[in-house]
Amino acid sequence: MSHNTFGHLFRVTTFGESHGPAIGCVVDGCPPGLSLTEADLQVYLDKRRPGQNRFTTQRQEPDVVRILSGVFEDDRTGGPVTTGTSIGLLIDNVDQRSKDYSEIRDAYRPGHADYPYDVKYGVRDYRGGGRSSARETAMRVAAGGVARKVTPGVTIRAALVQMGPHKIDRARWDWAEVDRNPFFCPDAEAAASWETYLDGVRKAGSSCGAMIEVVAEHVPVGWGAPIYGKLDAELASALMSINAVKGVEFGLGMAAADLSGEENADEMRLGNDGQPIFLSNNAGGILGGMSTGQPIVARFAVKPTSSILTPRLSVDRFGAETDIRTRGRHDPCVGIRAVPVGEAMVAIVLADAYLRHRGQVGESHVWPFARPPV
Ligand SMILES: Cc1cc2nc3c(=O)[nH]c(=O)nc-3n(C[C@H](O)[C@H](O)[C@H](O)COP(=O)(O)O)c2cc1C
C-alpha cells in the first residue's frame, strides 16, 4: 500500500497497525538545532490517549513515545537537539483484544472502511481495521509535536464546538475551559450537559458525531502559495485525511454562500502601529491560498463512530446478507479524541508551509512598500 507519506519539505511517513507490535513514524526535513525531548511529544499524546474517562474507548494504551533517531545530546552544550536527519518515533501497542473482532471477521461494518478495503486489497486485518484504524493518528500527534518546534511563534489550539446536534454558546468561549473537561469543550455549561447526553448515547449502544474548531494564531503573512500550494487546500487535505472526517471549512466556510460581497469581505484599516488590521475574519485567515496574519480558523465535522452495538444490515465477504453488531471497545464519539489530531495536522501543514516559504522568498517583505518617486 502506498500513500503513507504526508508533506513536502517537512514530511511525515507513518507505519504500523493497531494489532501489530508497534506503530511509528519517520519525520524528515526537520531543521537541525531545535531542542527536542520525548516529554515534549508526550504532552500531546496524553491528550489523545484512550481510556482516560468513561466518554472514550476503554482500551488502555499508554502511548509512550520513544525517539529512536535524529536527536543528539552533546554534553558540552546540554539538552538534546535535532540533528537535521530523519527523526524516528515509535509507540508500542500494548492493549489488543483480537477476540473482540471475531464478529466482523468476514462481515462489513456499515460506515466503516471494511468493504472497500477488502475489495481493493483482498486482505484485511479485521482485528483493528489495519491501516484504516485510527490508532495511526497517534503518530500524527507525535509528529505534530515535532512540527510545533519548527514554528515556535505560532500557537495552535483546538476545541470541540458541537457534540451530536448540541452546539456550544460562543459567548461563553473560554480556552482555559478546554483542559478542564473530558471533551476539550471551551464552554463549561455545554460540557456539563454533554456528559448526560453522551452517557445516554453510550448506554443505548449508539454513537454521535462532532465538530472541531482549530485556531492557529501568530502565523505571519504570506505562508502558502497561490494555485496548487494553497494553504487552505493543504490544510483541508490534512484534516480530511483524519479518520471519520466528512467536512472541512475555513472562517465562515459554507455560510459565506449566503452573504453579499459587502457582508463577506473583511474590510481593512490601519492599526496604531501603522500595520493593517482586518475588521472581521470571515476568510478564516487565508486569502488567495496565503495566510493574512489573522488567526487561521478551520472547522471539521466528524461522523458518528460506525462500530456500534445496535444491529445493522450488512453483507459478508462471501456474498451473503447478514446483520452485524460491533462489540469491543469503541469511542461513542470519536470527535473527542480527534481534537489533538486536528491540532497536529495543522501544525504539520504550517511547519511545511513555513519551510517552503523560507525556501522561496526568505524573509517576508517589509510592509508598507516605499512609494516610488513621481
Ligand atoms: C481518534 C479516532 C478514534 C476512532 N476510533 C474509532 C473506533 O473506536 N471505532 C470505529 O468504528 N471508528 C473509529 N474511528 C473512525 C474510523 O477509523 C473511520 O471511520 C474508518 O477508518 C473509516 O474511515 P472514514 O470514516 O474516514 O471514511 C476513529 C477515528 C478517530 C479520529
Oligomer: single chain
Q: Which range best describes the helical content: under 10%, 10-25%, 25-40%, 40-55%, 55-70% or over 70%?
A: 10-25%
Q: H/E order of the elements? A: EEEHEEEEHHEEHEHEHEEEEEEEH
Structural class: alpha+beta
Radius of gyration: 22 Å
Strand tally is 18
What fraction strand? 15-25%
Note the overall shape: globular
- Poorly predicted tracts of residues: none
Number of helices: 7
Can you summarize the main beta sheet? 5 strands, antiparallel
Which descriptors would you attach to this protein?
374 residues, alpha+beta, five-stranded antiparallel β-sheet, 7 helices, 18 strands, 24% helix, 21% strand, globular, binds flavin mononucleotide
Structure overview:
The chain is of the alpha+beta class and 374 residues long. The chain is built from seven helices and 18 strands. Strands 1-2-3-7-4 form a five-stranded antiparallel β-sheet, covered by helices on one side. Helix 1 (38-48) packs across helix 7 (335-361). Residues 57, 112-113, 129, 132-134, 137, 242-244, 303, 305-307, 330-331, 334, 337-338, 341 line the site of flavin mononucleotide (FMN).
